[in-house]
Structures are given as structure tokens and as C-alpha cells.
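Sequence, please.
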């Protein structure tokens, strides 16, 4: 029998490892806020050619669901935020919606989940109180169609739903949401055998805190790690730390048994000058290393057996999205279906995958300063950021977001009242900027807390409206 060389032996071991590794699952978000995307039929062909067998969409568009019919691709559809009120108050509306958008396509289109709303707590339309009733009514509609055992119901939360996330072991939900939303939601998820959907973006935390967070730590590259002082566990990626903060928050409420699916995560390949870390190389490293991390198995330090299903954001660059440049550059593909960068999306592709780091890549020490708030955003004085209104969002969206920030959002809007220090200039953009920033700072600059449906974005220079000074912390 021929003796194996060391190199051939290692290759054999590697092939056995990839053949038998029992890891998680990778899907992709198929957003369509663009005017130059290929047809849904071509998109399905692209998904199949890349070996992607899970996709999440942000509505229930008939052309998309028809094109996915018979493809073998598992689908998560979305009931948009603007329909939450109707779905929550009227069971008949929920029943009709399920009949038209789910039952009409299943099982030919393999719908496996319904996302009821998306990041509802940061939506400016004050629909939080309708969320759980809408989830229950959608589920009841599935029961009537005898689809409840095949299709799960949940709702994606942003990390800004956390009151604290550092250290991960101290993870906790915002107190005003615990009894009103999270306990009834978790009871529902437990009773129906569903899971919590979470949107997690380490990019937001790194962008705001690049002075204290290591780029290697954010990109799943080799680093010395960060020890959680609360439980002694060592973290080697910001992603794992964020996910475990949510697990810890669930555990604090005694819901350890509920699974989690990461419904959005990603890294932009391009950004504005002040969007630190947004680059082609970093996007390729984050998503490529994330795919390897998920597909090769193993959970998080806190939940080592919890293999995750993770949906990358997003399939395409979307040229009609509002906000900073990064918002239009999260895609894995350009609209002409060419890859923005080359990363594997399957176990087969991982066999030859290498994270190509350029010689110019910087590497700061791993964060040692406390990282507070949902998404792990620090209050370091050398890395201050502010949240301001996006003047291009339109008056209606700005006013709605302003109303939310000063109402349910709990922003301190006293300074923009008539006769107060920040009333002048008396413009919608100036008042909205102050309110958005107050909310953002009160959320400890958490990832996703400066969004407001595209009506706001983060800046690194102090905003200037008249003589008004914007705070950097509360």
C-alpha cells in the first residue's frame, strides 16, 4: 500500500472534515429597492447557480413567489410593517393575507417562515403594540389552512432592542419592551415551536468605535479575543458577542429554550468618507469568514451546540435606498449578476477559500474599553458619533419619525419646543435631527438605532443647527 505524504494526508483529512461537518445554514436577503435588477426568474437561476437554498424577501410579491415555485429554495416572506395594524386588529385581514400570499403558493413554493414586520421597535409608525397580536392572527390563519406545522411565524428584531450588550453575559432587553412585547412574544414562539429572528450588524459597532474595536475581531480574523468578565468566556468575534448578548437577554427572562435565526447580517463594500471600515476587502472578509464560521459548525461561546441559520444582507446592491452610500452597497452581486467580490456560499466552495488580506490592512488592539448598548457601541470620547436627519427622506417620513422619537422612542425633545434652546432654527430637519440624536444617544449609539426607516444616518462631526449643541451621551 502506497504511503501517503504529509500534504496528501492533510488534504484527505480536510476532505473528510468538509464531508462530515455538521454546521449551520446560509441564506440571503433578496431586497428589491432598485430600478435595475434582473427579473425574478433570472434571480432564481442565480440563486441556484450559487448553491443558495434559502432566501428571505421583504414582502410577498407574486412574481417572486411564482418564480421560486419548484426551485427547492426555502423561502421566508414578510408581512410589511404598514400592515401590522390591520393584521393585529382584524383576524379576517390576517386570514385573507395568508390565503393570498402563502397558501396560494405553498407547497410548490417552499415557504418555511413568515416574518411579521421588520425591526418594528425602531419603525417610526408606532406599531409595536400591534406586533404580537398580528403574529398570533397570522398563526391562527395558518392553523385554519393546516399550514402551521410547516410554516413558522416570527419577527426580526434589531440589536437596539437591547438595553445592554457588554459584556455579552449582561445582555438585557429594553425594560419598556419586556412585559409589553418580549414575554408575550417568547410565549408565542415557545408554544408554536418557532424561533427568534435577529438582525445583527457588527459593522455599525465597528464604524462608530474603530478606535477601540479591532478590525480583525469584527471580521472573524485571528485575534487574541475578549474575555467576558461576567462568565469568563473568551470571544474571538464581535458577531458571536452580539448574538450571545441576545441569548443572555433571553436567558435572563427564562427563555433559554427558544432558538435563534440571524435574519440579517452583512458588511458594505463601499461607503462615505466618514463610514469607517466600509470597503470591498472588508466586506469580502466579513461575509467570507462568516460563511466559513457558520457552515463548519459550532455555535457561540454561550451556546456551543446552537448551529445558526444566517441570512446575508443582501443579494444585490440596491440603487434606490436612502441614506449614506453604504446603504446602497451591501450586495453580493451587482444588478448585472456579476459578483461584487468572490466568496464561497457553500461547503464545496469553502474547500479552496482564503481570506485575502491586503498588506495595508490595519489592525488595532481588540477592544478593552467597555462596549455598551445594543450592538456593542462604546461611549469612548475619541470616537463620538451623532445621528442626524436625512433631508432627502421627505417631509412625511421625517415628521413620522420625529413623532416616534419624541413619543414612544423616549427622546428628550424639550430643547426643541418653542422658546427653548434648540427651537431655532425652526425647521423640520433641524428638529428631527435633534430628536433622532437624543434617541440614538439614549440607546447608547446601538447598531440600528440611527435608521428610522431611512430617515436618519450617523455622522462623526458634531451637527450644527444655529447655536444648538447636540449631546453625545445621557
Amino acid at each position: 500500500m502506497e504511503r501517503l505524504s504529509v500534504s496528501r494526508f492533510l488534504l484527505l483529512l480536510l476532505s473528510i472534515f468538509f464531508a462530515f461537518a455538521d454546521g449551520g445554514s446560509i441564506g440571503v436577503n433578496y431586497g428589491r429597492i432598485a430600478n435595475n435588477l434582473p427579473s425574478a426568474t433570472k434571480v432564481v437561476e442565480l440563486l441556484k447557480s450559487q448553491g443558495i437554498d434559502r432566501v428571505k424577501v421583504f414582502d410577498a410579491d407574486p412574481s417572486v413567489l411564482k418564480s421560486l415555485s419548484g426551485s427547492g429554495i426555502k423561502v421566508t416572506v414578510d408581512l410589511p410593517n404598514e400592515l401590522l395594524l390591520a393584521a393585529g386588529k382584524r383576524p379576517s385581514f390576517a386570514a385573507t393575507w395568508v390565503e393570498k400570499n402563502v397558501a396560494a403558493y405553498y407547497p410548490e413554493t417552499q415557504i418555511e417562515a413568515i416574518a411579521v414586520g421588520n425591526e418594528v421597535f425602531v419603525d417610526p409608525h408606532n406599531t409595536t403594540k400591534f406586533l404580537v397580536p398580528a403574529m398570533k392572527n397570522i398563526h391562527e390563519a395558518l392553523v385554519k389552512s393546516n399550514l402551521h406545522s410547516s410554516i413558522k411565524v416570527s419577527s426580526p428584531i434589531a440589536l437596539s432592542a437591547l438595553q445592554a450588550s457588554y459584556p455579552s453575559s449582561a445582555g438585557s432587553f429594553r425594560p419598556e419592551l419586556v412585559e409589553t412585547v418580549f414575554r408575550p412574544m417568547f410565549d408565542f414562539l415557545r408554544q408554536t415551536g418557532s424561533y427568534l429572528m435577529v438582525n445583527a450588524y457588527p459593522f455599525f459597532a465597528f464604524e462608530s468605535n474603530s478606535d477601540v474595536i479591532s478590525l480583525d475581531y469584527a471580521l472573524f480574523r485571528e485575534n487574541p479575543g475578549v474575555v467576558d468578565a461576567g462568565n469568563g468566556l473568551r470571544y474571538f468575534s464581535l458577531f458571536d458577542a452580539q448574538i450571545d448578548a441576545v441569548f443572555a437577554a433571553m436567558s435572563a427572562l427564562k427563555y433559554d429554550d427558544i432558538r435563534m435565526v440571524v435574519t440579517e447580517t452583512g458588511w458594505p463594500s463601499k461607503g462615505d468618507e466618514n463610514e469607517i471600515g466600509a470597503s470591498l476587502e472588508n466586506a469580502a472578509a466579513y461575509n467570507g469568514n462568516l460563511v466559513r464560521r457558520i457552515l463548519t459548525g459550532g455555535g457561540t461561546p454561550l451556546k456551543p451546540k446552537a448551529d445558526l441559520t444566517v441570512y446575508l444582507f443582501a443579494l444585490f446592491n440596491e440603487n434606490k435606498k436612502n441614506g449614506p452610500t453604504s446603504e446602497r452597497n451591501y450586495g453580493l452581486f451587482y444588478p448585472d449578476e456579476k459578483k461584487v467580490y468572490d466568496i464561497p456560499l457553500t461547503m464545496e466552495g469553502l474547500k479552496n477559500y482564503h481570506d485575502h488580506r491586503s498588506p495595508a490592512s490595519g489592525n488595532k488592539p481588540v477592544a478593552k474599553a467597555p462596549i455598551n448598548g445594543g450592538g456593542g457601541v462604546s461611549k469612548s470620547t475619541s470616537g463620538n458619533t451623532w445621528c442626524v436627519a436625512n433631508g432627502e427622506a421627505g417631509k412625511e417620513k421625517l415628521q413620522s419619525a420625529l413623532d416616534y422619537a419624541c413619543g414612544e422612542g423616549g427622546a428628550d425633545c424639550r430643547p426643541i419646543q418653542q422658546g427653548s434652546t434648540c427651537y431655532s432654527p425652526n425647521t423640520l430637519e433641524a428638529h428631527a435631527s435633534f430628536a433622532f440624536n437624543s434617541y440614538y444617544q439614549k440607546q447608547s449609539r446601538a447598531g440600528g438605532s440611527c435608521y428610522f426607516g431611512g430617515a436618519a444616518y450617523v455622522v462623526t462631526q458634531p451637527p450644527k443647527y444655529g447655536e444648538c449643541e447636540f449631546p453625545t451621551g445621557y
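Residues 1-22, 360-382 have pLDDT under 50 and may be disordered.
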